[in-house]
Amino acid sequence: MNDITCPKCGGLTQGLIDGLCKDCFFKASHLIEAPLVLYAKICPTCGAQLLKGKWNNDYTIPEIVIQTAEDALLIHDKADDIELCIEPKQMTPHVYRVKIEASATILGEPVQQSIETEARITRIACDMCSRMSGNYFEAILQIRAASRHPTEEEKKRCMQIINNTLDKMQKKGDRTAFITNSAEARDGIDLYMGSANATRIICKEIVAELGGGFAESSSLFGRKDGKEVYRMTFSLRLPEFMPGDIIEFKDKVVEIKKFSKSVTGTDLIKSGRFISSPDDMKGFVLIAKRSTAKKAVVVSIEKDEMMLLDPDNFETVTVKIPVPFSASEGDEVPVIKASIGLVALPDETSRKNDL
């Protein structure tokens, strides 16, 4: 086989590698290369980091520096069995010195190289914080209650569910799962939400726990990149009745224990369990709450009836003993007034056990 002249050194060789003899090839080749300065982007507001075009909150700053160096590293295309060691050293709060050591084989020859570069931490608002500061929103969540105003306790629980759901969705990578703004309305709360999809999931979570229902509608907001942009409105209605509400319709007086997809409670007239659906509750009206029930003194007890002193006029009235009931003569028991007259409430412990 005829020898070939290397165009660089003029020496004879049996073959060329990328147009050079073997010695010149290895002298001219670099196992690894990296820019003299690297830039790691971190959001100053939420601390999210930009890696491979995506913002996330999964890494520490040293880990971000290592990943940024690895992403910027150029490795010889003929290298095999590559091993890397990247060590960042903090020089200032925003500057790291990064040492990169590499070992590999190129055309069967072992090769080692060590280089250094500088990583600078740059502060730039992430996509989520940019949108939030720009009042970006895709949906409005209106939290109301049917035929009443939501209580402070209900508002607090709704916000807990909302924040927990948004946190979970952000951890899964939804960068629009946030609240842009909130406003107290006369009959509830209005929330401006970054994601319509997140808002829909939130409505389902609230309804599953607190009951009620929701409806959604859309309106044309404008056009972007030639496409129509819509904004959604989610109208969430908490149930009309709450645990502890005492309602009446025709011959039924019921203390509500749960009001969601199904309605459960105690029939105070029959002293039995009440089960229904929200659709079948039309006509019921709120007549009292256990928390505001008045106290009546027990005068005497006989079989399934007892005599009480009416707390309004102190007249003696006979009422049915509720189940369960543990009071004795002389004790005070909670009572409410229905269309049939005075009604005694069962022991509070039974209500808690059924919740």
Count of helix runs: 6
CATH level-3 fold name of the largest domain: OB fold (Dihydrolipoamide Acetyltransferase, E2P)
- Span of the ends, CA to CA: 93 Å
Percent helix range:
10-25%
Strand order of the largest sheet: 12-13-11-15-14
Q: What is the molecular shape? A: elongated
Determine Rg (CA atoms, Å): 36 Å
Examine the secondary-structure arrangement and name the CATH architecture of the largest domain: Beta Barrel
What is the oligomer described by this structure?
A: single chain
Structural class: alpha+beta
Described by strand count, sense and barrel closure, the largest sheet is:
5 strands, mixed
Top-tier CATH class of the largest domain: Mainly Beta
* % residues in beta strands: over 45%
The overall strand count is 25
Whole-number tally of structural domains: 4
Mean pLDDT, nearest integer?
Answer: 88
Summary keywords:
five-stranded antiparallel beta sheet, elongated, alpha+beta, 355 residues, five-stranded mixed beta sheet, Immunoglobulin-like
What can you tell me about this protein's structure?
The protein is an alpha+beta fold and 355 residues long. It has 4 domains: 1-30, no CATH class; 33-123, Immunoglobulin-like; 135-238; 245-354, Beta Barrel (OB fold (Dihydrolipoamide Acetyltransferase, E2P)), CATH 2.40.50. It is built from 6 helices and 25 strands. The strands form 7 sheets. The chain has a 5-stranded mixed beta sheet. It has a 5-stranded antiparallel beta sheet with strand order 19-18-17-16-20, covered by helices on one side. A 5-stranded antiparallel beta sheet has the order 23-22-21-24-25, with no helix packed on it. Strand 14 (213-224) and strand 15 (227-238) form a beta hairpin. Helix 4 packs across helix 5. The radius of gyration is 36 Å and the shape is elongated.
